[in-house]
Specification:
- This protein has 600 residues and is of the alpha/beta class.
- The chain is built from 22 helices and twelve strands.
- The radius of gyration is 30 Å and the shape is elongated.
- The two termini are 36 Å apart.
- The N terminus and C terminus are likely disordered.
C-alpha cells in the first residue's frame, strides 16, 4: 500500500496504471486532465514538428500513436509522451545533414527511420537492463546540453519572427550571422509585430498561470490563444499577401501506415546511414533521460515508483509503434505531464483522452490551420525553451566543482557546434574521467583517532603508528578492475616500503566489486609481504559478499590445480575482528580497548 502525497488517499501498488484495464479506473479528473493536455498538445505538437523540419501534421501524428502506446505499457501514471523540443532539434539536425532530404516525403522517411532506430535502441537497453547508462550523462552535462540546445533552437526560429528566410549555417554561429545579414536586408514589419504580440501573450499567460496555480487550464491557454489569434488576424487582414508566412494546407485524417520508401537510397548509402544511426543513438539517450526525469519527479510527488528499464521498453515501443504510423521520435514532455498532474490525472487514461482530442482535431479541424502564421509556431517554441537556459547552474557549479564547470561548458559550446557531437563529446569525457578515477584507486594508511580507526588524511590527530606491529591499509574505491590493478599494487607497495611491522591488514570495506586482475594484484602484495623476514601475518577485512565470492572462486581454482595449496592470508568480517585477533597475539599492544570507526 502507498499513499498519494497530493490527495492523501491510499493507493494499492497493484492498482492498474496502464493497459486496457486503465479505462475501468478512469475518473472525471482523468477526463479533465486529458482534455486540458489535448488542447495544449495541438499547438505544441505542430510547433515541434516545424522545429524538426517536418510539416506540422507529423507533430499531430506523434501526439496520437506514441502516447496511446505508452499508456498501454508505461508505469508512470502522469507522464505524457509526444513531441518535445530536444528530440525535434536532433531530428532537424540529422535531416539537414542528409543530401537526399530534399522533399517532404524524404524528410518524413528519415524522421520515421530515426524513430524506429531510437526505439529499437531503447528496447534493447531495457531488455539488457542498461537503464543506469544514463548516469554517465551527469547533471552538469544535461544542464549544459539543454542550455546549448535551447540557444540553437532560438537562433533557428528568430527568422520566422522577423519574417525572413535564412539558410542554416554549418554551426549555430554561422546561422546567427546569416540571420543578422537577412535582417539587415529587410524584414516583414507585420511578421515582427505579430511575433512580438505572440511572445508577449505567451509570457503573459505564463505569468497568469503562475499567479493562479490552482487553475490548471490557464497553462494551456497561452499556446491555444496565440494560435487562434494569429490565424484569425492573418485571415481577416490577408496578411499572407503582406509578407507573413503561413503553414498552408494541413491534411485531414488519422495517420496512415508508413509507406517505407527506399530509405537506404534516401539517406545516401552507408555514410548517410551512419549519420542517422548516430542521431538515433543520441535521441534514444536524450528522450529516455528527459522521460525518466519527469516520470521520477511525478512518481515522487504522487507516492509511487517507476522502474527505469521498464520505462526504456515502454518508451522504445511507443517510438517504434509511432514510426509505423508516420510519427517521428518523441519523449516524455515535462510541460504537458506537469499539466496532467496538476489537473488531477491519476492514470494513463488522461493520455488516452488527450490522444483522442488530437485525433478528433486531425479528423475535423485541420483546414482551420491554413492561415496559421509560422511565426506563431516559432513563438511557441522560443517560449518553451527560453526557461531551459539556466546560467545560474553554471554560476553555482563554479563555486562547487571546477570539473563539473568544465563539463557544463563543453556540453554547452559543443552543442552550439553540433547538437549530437556536443552531447556525445561531453558524455565521452565524463566516461574518460570516471575510468581515470577508478583506474587510480585511493589507498591510505589507517590510523587510530581516540578509540576509532580512520584514514590518516581525515584528521591531523590520527596516529598511523598506534601499534608497532600492525599496519592497516584501506582501499577506497567502489570498483577494482583490471585497468587499475597495477596502480593498486604500486600504491600499496609504496606505503609498505620501509615498514618493519609484522602484520598487514588490508581493509576492503569500501570495495563493492573486484575482478580477477585486481585480486591477483592484491595477492601479489600479500605474497611480497609474507616473504619479508619480519612478517608474521596478513589479512583482508570488510569483504562484502560479491567480493567474497570472487575470493572463494579464485581459491577453488587454486585448490583444483594444487590440492595441497594453503591460503596465505585470512579474511575477517570487520576491521575490529582482525585488530582484536592480532592485538591478542602481540603483548606489546598498549592503550584502551580499540574499535573500528563506523563502517568498518
Amino acid at each position: 500500500m502507498q499513499r498519494d502525497i497530493e490527495s492523501g488517499e491510499t493507493v494499492r501498488n497493484e492498482e492498474p496504471t496502464n493497459g486496457i484495464r486503465v479505462l475501468k479506473t478512469m475518473t472525471k479528473e482523468d477526463v479533465l486532465a486529458g482534455l486540458t493536455v489535448g488542447v495544449m498538445a495541438i499547438p505544441q505538437s505542430m510547433a515541434y514538428a516545424y522545429l524538426a523540419g517536418l510539416d506540422p501534421i507529423y507533430g499531430l501524428y506523434t501526439a496520437v500513436i506514441p502516447p496511446l502506446t505508452y499508456a498501454l505499457l508505461g508505469n508512470s501514471r502522469q507522464l505524457h509522451v509526444g513531441p518535445v523540443s530536444m528530440v525535434s532539434l536532433i531530428t532537424a539536425t540529422c535531416i539537414s545533414k542528409i543530401d537526399g532530404a530534399d522533399t517532404v516525403v524524404n524528410k518524413a522517411a528519415i524522421a520515421t527511420l530515426l524513430a524506429v532506430l531510437a526505439g529499437t535502441f531503447q528496447i534493447l537497453m531495457g531488455v539488457f537492463r542498461l537503464g543506469t547508462l544514463v548516469n554517465f550523462a551527469t547533471a552538469p552535462i544535461i544542464s549544459g546540453f539543454t542550455a546549448g540546445a535551447s540557444v540553437v533552437v532560438i537562433v533557428s526560429q528568430i527568422q520566422h519572427i522577423f519574417g525572413i528566410s535564412v539558410s542554416s549555417g554549418i554551426t549555430t554561429i554561422h546561422t546567427l550571422f546569416n540571420t543578422f545579414v537577412g535582417i539587415s536586408e529587410g524584414i516583414s514589419g507585420y511578421s515582427l509585430a505579430l511575433g512580438i504580440v505572440f511572445l508577449a501573450s505567451l509570457w503573459a499567460a505564463k505569468a497568469l498561470a503562475q499567479r493562479h496555480p490552482n487553475i490548471t487550464a490557464l497553462k494551456a491557454v497561452g499556446p491555444l490563444f496565440v494560435v487562434v489569434l494569429g490565424t484569425c488576424v492573418t485571415y481577416a487582414f490577408s496578411l499572407d499577401d503582406k509578407g507573413v508566412f503561413i503553414i498552408g494546407d494541413v491534411p485531414s485524417g488519422l495517420p496512415g501506415i508508413t509507406k517505407w520508401v527506399n530509405v537506404f537510397e534516401v539517406v545516401g548509402g552507408v555514410d548517410g546511414f551512419s549519420k542517422v544511426l548516430a542521431s538515433a543513438m543520441a535521441i534514444s539517450f536524450i528522450s529516455f533521460m528527459e522521460s525518466i526525469a519527469v516520470a521520477k519527479t511525478l512518481a515522487n510527488h504522487h507516492g509511487y515508483e517507476v522502474e527505469a528499464n521498464r520505462e526504456l521498453i515502454s518508451l522504445g515501443t511507443a517510438n517504434c509503434m509511432g514510426s509505423m504510423f508516420n510519427s517521428y521520435a518523441g519523449a516524455g514532455a515535462f510541460s504537458r505531464s506537469a499539466v496532467a498532474s496538476g489537473a488531477g490525472a491519476r492514470t494513463q487514461a488522461a493520455a488516452i483522452v488527450a490522444a483522442v482530442v488530437v485525433a478528433l482535431t486531425l479528423l475535423f479541424l485541420t483546414p482551420l490551420f491554413f492561415y496559421l502564421p509560422k511565426g506563431v509556431l516559432s513563438a511557441i517554441i522560443i517560449h518553451a525553451v527560453w526557461g531551459l537556459i539556466k546560467i545560474s547552474d553554471l554560476l553555482n557549479l563554479r563555486k562547487v566543482s571546477i570539473r563539473d564547470t568544465i563539463l557544463w561548458l563543453i556540453a554547452f559550446t559543443g552543442t552550439l557546434y553540433s547538437v549530437t557531437a556536443g552531447l556525445l563529446t561531453a558524455v565521452g569525457i565524463s566516461c574518460f574521467l570516471i575510468i581515470k578515477d577508478t583506474s587510480n584507486p585511493k589507498v591510505e594508511i589507517v590510523g587510530r583517532f581516540h578509540d576509532t580507526f580512520v584514514p590518516v588524511s581525515q584528521r591531523e590527530e590520527v596516529d598511523p603508528d598506534w601499534n608497532q606491529d600492525i599496519i592497516i591499509i584501506g582501499v577506497y574505491s567502489g570498483t577494482l578492475h583490471g585497468g587499475g590493478a597495477a596502480a593498486l599494487k604500486s600504491s600499496i607497495m609504496s606505503l609498505l616500503c620501509g615498514s618493519m611491522k609484522h602484520v598487514l591488514i588490508i581493509d576492503l570495506t569500501s570495495v563493492t566489486s573486484i575482478d580477477t586482475t585486481s585480486l591477483t594484484a592484491l595477492k601479489d602484495v600479500m605474497k611480497a609481504f609474507n616473504e619479508l623476514p619480519h612478517s608474521t601475518a596478513c589479512c583482508f577485512t570488510g569483504v562484502c559478499e560479491p567480493v567474497r565470492r570472487t575470493f572463494e572462486g579464485d581459491f577453488s581454482i587454486e585448490k583444483a590445480s594444487s590440492p595441497d595449496s594453503v591460503r596465505s592470508f585470512q579474511i575477517f568480517a570487520t576491521l575490529s575482528d582482525a585488530i582484536r585477533k592480532y592485538s591478542d597475539l602481540h603483548s606489546d599492544h598498549d592503550g584502551p580497548p580499540i574499535r573500528a570507526a563506523s563502517g568498518y
